[in-house]
Amino acid sequence: MVFEVFWGPNEIGLAPWRGFVYLKWFMNDEPKQKTEPAPPLEQRLAQRPHVLARFHAIADMLDQAVAAGCTADEAERQAIEQVQMLGRELLGDWAQEQQAGSLARARDQHPQAIKHIKKKSAG
What is the pTM of this model? Predict the structure, then answer.
């Protein structure tokens, strides 16, 4: 079987008429969506003060590690722990935002639904 190889400005592949194999660069057939640029980091962090506080904690940890004469391995371990805490906090934020959005959509779609709350005990 003979394949004709071709190169285009955005494509690389084998001629489809010779074996029906066709590869596009990065295999991305979806059109690119135009998005607006994200707001500046300072503005985004102003909306999440706990994330900014975590960044300050990481910087403080690094300053303390340098002042204490930590080895690179110790400083790296501490930095990894701080970044993992940041990741957990960000995922927690994301989960809360998703839950709030899901709840709002459910209330819009089913306004007759009853909100489940714990009953107050008599006494």
Answer: 0.55
